[in-house]
Amino acid sequence: MRALIFDLDGTLIDTVYAHVFAWQRALAESGLAIDGWKIHRRIGMSGGLFTRAVAREIGKPLSDEDAARIQSRHGALFRELLPERRPLPGAIDLLRHLREEHIPHGIATSGRHPEIDASLTALGVPAGTVVIDRGDVLRAKPEPDLFLKCQEEIGVEIRDCYVVGDAVWDLLAARRAGMLSVGILAGGYGWDELIAAGAFRVYRDPADLHRSLDELGII
Amino acid sequence: MRALIFDLDGTLIDTVYAHVFAWQRALAESGLAIDGWKIHRRIGMSGGLFTRAVAREIGKPLSDEDAARIQSRHGALFRELLPERRPLPGAIDLLRHLREEHIPHGIATSGRHPEIDASLTALGVPAGTVVIDRGDVLRAKPEPDLFLKCQEEIGVEIRDCYVVGDAVWDLLAARRAGMLSVGILAGGYGWDELIAAGAFRVYRDPADLHRSLDELGII
Asked: A190 to chain B, minimum CA–CA distance in Å?
């Protein structure tokens, strides 16, 4: 019995570019302008790691207060810039198919309630679906904790879990969890980057994955 | 005598993610929501090609009026989202170095005056620098016209020109112009994507290129 463990942002819901731009604005407002591509390539890692990476870029440590203020400003800008969450093509149908076919699955995200609630609603994720968020574990991606916690709750063996994610951080965390992984291009990473990080297949979006479930041995 | 022909957005100035998000918002407002990554991978191609690509995504033709309206809304959102243009690391110094060392160079962009003027000002590009914009040629990237026109004005042989760009469209246009090309990661494409499109070197940003000019045979 194979199980699918999904990342959320950039994998099921089209939020990556709004996140990048919200971070870019929030950092610039604090006088900490950082290249957009460096933010993009760090979306999906834990907030603590992200903050340390930002500090390294600007060449001085960020105080906890500054980090918290910038993080809060990012959240406000993100909600302002993207009031509606848009599921990626095929995401709703894929999740419905998994439910109808009783294929075990869950969502494991570095995001937090209540920020992720609008995304879950847009995706039509019903109560009872396993959703692990940042608050459920001590360490976020690329640590394996989110995926391991999700796998425990789904109740399927590690070796039978496929992680589905758009970011290198998902794929690294999957390897560290001992799980196979599948890359999704909708987060804006290139095919090669995802393969190099350990994905054994790469699909464009959830619709493309749905059409290809047999390539994963899931029917 | 080697010459460098630079793309502008994403190569010298940090505007790609603001462009992506402005397009995403402008399209969504018109009921034509498209995945962010598909917009990202089309930034830098000609506006006409971009519009046709959008129409193909949504599965119906866009009227010229709709296309013009969305393009105008994109411009307004872009200026609102990014009132200040931020040169990429090392861009100002690199251009100054090229001027001081009398190394022939120019800028060739799918953008237009007056939209690009703020970027040229932020980069400290003096009057007299060869700048070819969309209005100077019949066809934009990935057609070779912008680079060929720039090369003519610089007055260096085609075989001695290196195109420097962040997008696959720059590198394709360079090949079609018969020029070698160098990729820049700051537009958010991956290393492999740029190499596969024909770049013979890839650098992170203009600062990294500046440190590596000897790898291009430019001293």
From this structure: 6
Which DSSP string do the residues of chain A spell out, in sequence order?
--EEEE--BTTTBS-HHHHHHHHHHHHHHTT----HHHHHTTTTS-HHHHHHHHHHHHTSPPPHHHHHHHHHHHHHHHHHH-SS--BPTTHHHHHHHHHHTT--EEEE-SS-TTTTHHHHHHTTPPTTSEEE-GGGSSS-TTSSHHHHHHHHHHT--GGGEEEEESSHHHHHHHHHHT-EEEEEGGGS--HHHHHHTT-SEEESSHHHHHHTGGGGT--
Candidates B9, B32, B37: best to mutate against A (most CBs of A within 10 A) is B37
Cα(B147)–Cα(B5) distance, integer angstroms: 7
Q: Are A18 and B24 in contact (CB < 8 Å)?
A: yes
Residues in chain A with CB shorter than 8 Å from the CB of B27 are none
Say yes or no for a CB contact (<8 Å) between A36 and B16.
yes
Q: Which amino acid is at B56?
A: R
Interchain proximity B35–A192, CB inside 8 Å? no
**Which residues in B lie closer than 8 A to residue A197 (C-beta atoms)?**
none
Which structural domains are found in chain A, ordered by start?
3-14+86-216 (3.40.50.1000), 16-81 (1.10.150.240)
Structure-derived torsion over alpha carbons of residues B171, A21, A136, A187, reported in degrees to the nearest 10: -30
Q: How confident is the prediction along chain A (219 residues), in pLDDT tens digits per residue? A: 799 999 999 999 999 999 999 999 999 999 898 999 999 999 988 888 888 888 888 888 888 899 999 989 999 999 999 989 999 999 999 999 999 999 999 999 999 888 899 999 999 999 999 999 999 999 999 999 999 999 999 999 999 999 999 999 999 999 999 999 999 999 999 999 999 999 999 999 999 999 999 999 887
Out of B14, B16, B189, name the one closest to residue A190 (CB): B189
ipTM, 2 dp: 0.92
Smallest CA-to-CA distance from A13 within A86, A106, A107, A115 is with: A86
Give the residue among B181, B186, B191 at the shortest CA–CA distance from B142: B181
Of A18, A35, A186, the CB nearest to B14: A35
Q: Which residue among A17, A86, A193 places its CB closest to the CB of B190?
A: A193
Query: Which residue of A35, A56, A205 to mutate against B (max B Cβ within 10 Å)?
Result: A35
